[in-house]
Design brief:
CATH architecture: 3-Layer(aba) Sandwich
CATH class: Alpha Beta
Strand content: 15-25%
Radius of gyration: 18 Å
Mean pLDDT: 92
Distance between the termini: 20 Å
Structural class: alpha/beta
Helix content: 40-55%
CATH topology: Rossmann fold
CATH superfamily: P-loop containing nucleotide triphosphate hydrolases
Strand order of the largest sheet: 2-6-1-7-8
Low-confidence stretches: none
Largest sheet: 5 strands, parallel
Number of strands: 8
Bound molecules: cytidine-5'-diphosphate
Number of helices: 9
C-alpha cells in the first residue's frame, strides 16, 4: 500500500521512544514496530548459543542467526483497564517463542550494541523492518530505534528525535526494570550500560545514531509524556490535512 503513513522515532537509550511510540500508535490506530527488540532478539539467541561476541571466527554465526531467525510482533490490549495504563503491550516472538521479557535483561543490553554494529546483521534487520512497514493491512506505522528516520524509513512523513539527560534516562530505566523484578538491578550499572551503548551506537560505521536533518527534537527531560504524544499527533494530523489539500488541488 503506497498510502501507509510513517512515523519514525529515534533517540538514545531509554529516552522514552517505545512508550511514546506505543501511545501514538494506539491513538492513531497505527501499528507499532520496535526495531530495537529485533536486535535484542538476535543477541538473546547468540547468548543462548554461547557465541563469543568479540571473537572474529564467531561473526558468521551471528550473521547467520540474523538471516535465519523468525521475528514477529503481536499486540495485546490489557482487559478490564486494570490500573491506569491500558495501552497495548507488544509481544516479541523469536522463532515463535515469546521472548518479550528475556530480551530486556542486562545481559542482552550489555551485548546488543556489538551485534547491532555488524553491517550484515543491520542489512538483514533493515529488510525485515521495511517489509513490516509496508505490510498491506494497516493505515500507518510508528517505528522506533536509532536509524529509522535516517536509514530505515527515510520517507517517513513525521520524524522525531527524542532526548533526555543521561541521569534521567538511567533513573527511568532503573525504575522500569525494578518493577519487573526479573533480576537484581543496580542504578550505577544501568547508567554505565546506557553510556556505553550510546557511545557505541553513535560511533559505529553503519547507520549510527543520528538525528535526521528533517527530524524534530523533543526533550523528554522537560516535556511530559502526554505533551510529547500530543505534539506528535498534531504533527501527524497537520501532515495528513496538507496531503488531502494537495490531492484536492491536483484532481
Ligand atoms: O530501549 P533502549 O533504548 O534501551 O534500546 P532498544 O531500542 O531496545 O535498542 C537496543 C540496541 O539495539 C541499541 O542500543 C542499538 O545498539 C540497537 N539498535 C540499533 O542499532 N538500531 C535500531 N534501529 C534499534 C536498536
Ligand atoms: O524505548 P526507550 O528505551 O527509548 O524508552 P522507554 O522504554 O519508552 O522509556 C523508559 C522509561 O521512561 C519508561 O518507564 C517510561 O515510562 C519512562 N518515560 C517517562 O517517564 N517519561 C517520558 N516522557 C517517556 C518515558
Amino acid at each position: 500500500k503506497s498510502s501507509i503513513f510513517k512515523i519514525a522515532i529515534d533517540g538514545p537509550a531509554a529516552s522514552g521512544k517505545s512508550t511514546t511510540a506505543r501511545h501514538v500508535a494506539h491513538r492513531l490506530g497505527f501499528t507499532y514496530i520496535d526495531s530495537g527488540a529485533m536486535y535484542r532478539a538476535i543477541t538473546l539467541k547468540a547468548l543462548r548459543r554461547n557465541i563469543q561476541f568479540e571473537s572474529p571466527s564467531e561473526m558468521p554465526h551471528i550473521i547467520n542467526l540474523a538471516n535465519t531467525s523468525k521475528i514477529h510482533f503481536a499486540t495485546t490490549t490489557p482487559i478490564g483497564g486494570s490500573g491506569n495504563d491500558n495501552t497495548p503491550q507488544t509481544i516479541v516472538y523469536l522463532d515463535d517463542e515469546d521472548v518479550s521479557a528475556d530480551i530486556r535483561t542486562m545481559n542482552v543490553s550489555r551485548n546488543v550494541s556489538f551485534v547491532a554494529a555488524l553491517p550484515e546483521v543491520r542489512k538483514a534487520m533493515l529488510a525485515k523492518q521495511r517489509r513490516y512497514a509496508n505490510s498491506t493491512d494497516i493505515d500507518g506505522v510508528v517505528m522506533d530505534g536509532r536509524d529509522i528516520g535516517t536509514a530505515v524509513l527515510p520517507d517517513a512523513q513525521v520524524k522525531i528525535f527524542l532526548t533526555a539527560i543521561t541521569n534521567v534516562r538511567a533513573m527511568r530505566r532503573y525504575e522500569q526494570l525494578k518493577k519487573k523484578e526479573k533480576e537484581l538491578v543496580v542504578y550505577e550499572e544501568i547508567l554505565r550500560d546506557i553510556e556505553k551503548r550510546d557511545k557505541a551506537d553513535l560511533e559505529r560505521k553503519v547507520s549510527p545514531l543520528r538525528k535526521a536533518i528533517d527530524a524534530v527534537v523533543l526533550d523528554t527531560t522537560t516535556l511530559s509524556l502526554s505533551e510529547i504524544v500530543g505534539k506528535i499527533i498534531e504533527m501527524t494530523n497537520n501532515m495528513k490535512s496538507d496531503a488531502v489539500q494537495l490531492s484536492g488541488i491536483n484532481s
